[in-house]
Amino acid sequence: MKKTPQDTAVIGAKQLSFKDKAENVLKCWQLYAFLLPALVILILFSYVPMYGVQLAFRDYNPIMGITGSPWVGFDHFTRFFNSYQFKQLIGNTLILSLYSLIVGFPIPIILALALNQVKNSKFKKLVQTVTYAPHFISVVVLVGMLGIFFSVNGGLVNEVIKLFGGEPKLFMGEVKYFRHMYVWSGIWQSMGWSAVIYLAALSGVSPELHEAATVDGATKLQRIWNIDLPTILPTIVTLLILNCGSVMSMGFEKAFLMQNPLNMENSEIIATYVYKMGLINAEYGFSTAVGLFNSVINCILLVTVNKVSKKIGQDGLW
Amino acid sequence: MLEKIFGEGFSKQAKSDKVFDVLNYIGLAMILLLVLYPLYFIVIASFSSPDAVARGEVWLLPVDFSTEGYQRIFEYKEIWTGYWNSLKYTVVGTGINLLLTIPAAFALSRKELVGKNVIMALFTFTMFFGGGLVPTYLLVNNLGMNNTIWALVLPGAVSTYNLIVARSFFAQSIPEELYEASIVDGCTYAKYFFKVVLPVSKPILAVMFLIYAVGHWNSYFSALIYLTDRDMYPLQVILREILIQQQSVAGGSMANAEAVEAQRKLSEMIKYGVIIVSSLPVLCIYPFVQKHFVKGMMIGSVKG
Amino acid sequence: MTKFTRVLTLATATALLATSLVGCSSDKAATNGADKVAVNVNLEGYPLVDQPITLKAFAFGEPGGGDWKDFPVFQALNEKTGINVEFQTVSGDGAEEKLNLTLASNQLPDVFFSGLSDTMINKYAKMGLFLPLEDLIDQYAPNIKALLEERPEIRQAITMPDGHIYAIPAINGNLDGNVPTKLYLNKTWLDKLGLEVPKTTDEFKAVLEAFKTQDPNGNGQADEIPFTYEPTPPYNIWNGDTGLSGAFGVTDSTANLMLRDGEIIFVGTDEGYKEYIKWTRDLYTNKLIDAEIFTQDHNQYMAKRGSDYVGAYLTHGPADGTATEWIAIEPLKGPEGHQLWSQFEHGIDKNRAIISATNQYPEATMRYIDSFFELENSLNLRYGKTLVEAGDGKYEVITLEPGVQTEAPGPYVPTLETPERINEYLVQTESQIASQERYAMYEPYLADALPIFNFTAEESQELSTMATDIRNFVSEKKAKWTTGQADIDAEWDSYVETLNKMGLERYMEIYRTAYERSLEQQ
């Protein structure tokens, strides 16, 4: 980000005395008033429920309430770490989200760069309108559509495979397909929408830069590499950090809906497990413990990635 | 001709750039088809007989053309109460979202705001750490919001991600000169925000409006948990019941096996049409808002 | 980093503050409901109470079955009994979640109708959320009391290991429900190809092969699905192969158990089970079984069942409304001469009504539930709109138009139906007679039904994770072996070893203890 005069003013403010600071705060009272409602909601609905994290160390009894239930120390954690599913859950969660990240992260960037090169505005608009649309489909519908298109009996994909003389494949069933199905359907749904943010950043590239480069004989690919990409790099880094921070918190819904006994080996992830143990098996303490473990890993990841990003000379999140 | 397809100045380009353009167009056209076809399929399937769809006979055009599915949808009362409820929740919810997010994002975009990084960090922290469902449920319950619209619209009233997007817009798209000029004119922050900033912030308002509204329209989980009165169910919950029926044999019942079967047949008949009908409001707003996406969606560092 | 620490501190501080705040409010919630109004309960006749009272009820109903508060039967009961019951109905998607959250919130309704498993009842009863009902039954429930005296096996089935009864059951009189799944064959195809009804597993395979290759639907394409079923929970009891494996001497159940020669055995590690899986693998890899049995959802299965593409399937009652003629065939005879089919205890539907400890009128509530066993109430609650008068004081149960609701809770509340009541008051329809004939056909081959197990709170706690692990693993392996994705012979030993690691021995020990306990109590 470019430095504005205000930036230096803030740096200056740090050396100001307490009194000046207080004056600054007073001057901005209207800004605080703007912030207040959002802060109230944040504290009430995000921070207040965090007291419930202690459930991870208690054996929950509704009559005694969260704060009154008996302590069990690290029992739930020990049970989780020793459980037959522990390794599998961690592995599945990590592989699925890393796969999503590695494939799903660059594709919107490439799409945005490609779209940015299109001069035919009608075509550009058409592609944009169509690729944004799946983002607004709900997950239920998406998984239903997967079942329809990849069915062995008359599903479109298998019909095409048969047309080319191949054997129909059990896409929704075999373990080895689950991750591909999950990740690529996700890409289908979100690549257009994720590209928007890069397109926005790309609109800030000044045409003069491109013109000058063209005069210098740079090819389109060279210009994309040397002008467009560096422009959107800060955006890329910010999103990458946010994504890395949530590596362990894959949403439960899609995996849950795509689960069947054939693919359970790969499709049971921490989120689905926490959900099942908590809301179906009513093991609140245990479920909270697993969730807490997950959140802690997330926070560690976030801090690490942010640190690394700063080390290699990029802006961090904070 | 080529100029028409590939835009002005195509033929003047170097050969390698021409090749690039052609490949680029082909690639994008393929992506276009890949995304478009499944959506198109839902449309033709909704006009075909359910059996033909289940057997995989529907490909390019409707088979055994029928509008029975749609007729059944119009007779399905719960879909329409759900529709009305969803509309209510979306309007109220989105209103609250915007009232809270936009001013807060503006405040956080002002560099002179003392403590903004700490506040921002407070928001960001909640993206990765939460108290869990049971404590949240107990809180909502204790506040007496169970089975009311407030349980759906208040807990998620400020989305951190959207806050970051809106803040980035204010920080990057509103020229600092505007602020300086209005200060010289003796404007307060409030006046500056309402008189100067909002009028030039249409893109972000449009984008926030759409994201939040679609979020409310598609959301079902809080409704599933907090609403107990069926008359209050939003469309998505009804939709889920139609699209995925689960565990209908909870008690080991036999008496109603035929009723379940009848309900299932009905669901099979209307499921494609219901997807279309339920997406209509989004499809209606979407074209008007779409043009603002590129200007509105920006993301910067969390720190100002 | 320092800023991050600062945030953490701030967050912790906020959280601590919040603890004290919410701590207070939840204490308050626990203390209300102290003042109780004295009501006299009539043991006979209506109204049931001498002054009107209101109860809150949690109703766990049929998915898509409608809101209980709109049911005419309850509106009538409200008026008749003088007890105004306000229902909160949950059903289908999210019902279990809502039930669990309601229990966790400690703001309990006065009575729960259905939805709770034994495990949950044990767990929450131990915490003190539910009332023990024995004394209430004794004093305020003449109908239930009479039934328990007449049929002690019911008392045994609903008494928890701690000696208390927490829930009132529904009693079914129709034996057909004991055999939830049967093997159906496409008679139209059979006749068209001039084939005999198969009697053995080999003959069955030959029929399926003919279905696959001889184009019985006559469209010139080999698009027939010779055989389909739902082999995995939650529908496997109804449309699955729990009985089909009987040709190899084992019948399956949700808990993967069977009762053989008076002993509980684990099906998943039995030699007969292994042979059965190999047989299905043979059918599957020869494409005689639907490729999607393990992946399709219930809707897809039901749709296939009603189409003209299927040659055989497993289900409770045949698909109607198709041009195809479906017949149930006798259980197949296996290569070793086994001919067995699974049977489930259906006479007692446990856990239909539970009274909360916070209920202010437990006596009146008990009497209210008791009145459900009276003939008229029982019929109306069970059949709703499907019940029509047939003259001579008899009734007929009709089939409703698609989309029309029964408007009754059906099997989700306690009701009493006995074979005597059926004979005396219900006219048998054609489809009911047909289903009884099917039952008669299967009866000679039925394996012993598993008893109703009642576990102590400790046992169910211990079972809960173990059971999930074991059952998931068994069905996962079943799927892989049947589809040929993994080799059953190569994996068998390590499979058994893994099950043992998951605690199979303890799992069986718990079931055997519970079984012995049930024998002693009889």
TrEMBL record, chain A:
UniProt keywords, alphabetically: Cell membrane, Membrane, Transmembrane, Transmembrane helix, Transport
Residue span, ABC transmembrane type-1 domain: 90-305
Family statement drawn from the similarity comment of this UniProt entry: Belongs to the binding-protein-dependent transport system permease family.
Organism ancestry: Bacteria, Bacillati, Bacillota, Clostridia, Lachnospirales
InterPro entries listed in its UniProt record: MetI-like (IPR000515), MetI-like_sf (IPR035906), UgpAE/MalFG_permease (IPR050809)
Membrane topology: Multi-pass membrane protein
Domain of life of the native organism: Bacteria
Signal peptide: none
Protein name per the record: Sugar ABC transporter permease
Organism of this sequence: Zhenhengia yiwuensis
Localization (cell): Cell membrane
Transmembrane segments annotated in the record for this chain: 29-48, 89-115, 135-161, 182-201, 232-252
From TrEMBL, chain B:
One annotated GO biological process: transmembrane transport
UniProt xrefs under Gene3D superfamilies: MetI-like (1.10.3720.10)
Species of origin: Zhenhengia yiwuensis
Membrane topology: Multi-pass membrane protein
Main localization of the protein described in the UniProt heading: membrane
A single GO cellular-component term on record: plasma membrane
Protein name: Carbohydrate ABC transporter permease
Record localization: Cell membrane
Keyword flag Transport: yes
Spans traversing the lipid bilayer: 22-47, 87-106, 118-137, 149-170, 269-289
TrEMBL record, chain C:
Signal peptide positions on this chain: 1-29
InterPro entries listed in its UniProt record: Bact_solute-bd_prot1, SBP
Protein name, UniProt field: Extracellular solute-binding protein
Pfam families (alphabetical): SBP_bac_1
Coiled-coil residue spans: none
Taxonomic path: Bacteria, Bacillati, Bacillota, Clostridia, Lachnospirales
PANTHER family assigned to the protein according to its UniProt record, in alphabetical order: ARABINOSE-BINDING PROTEIN-RELATED, DIACETYLCHITOBIOSE BINDING PROTEIN DASA
The entry's keywords: Signal
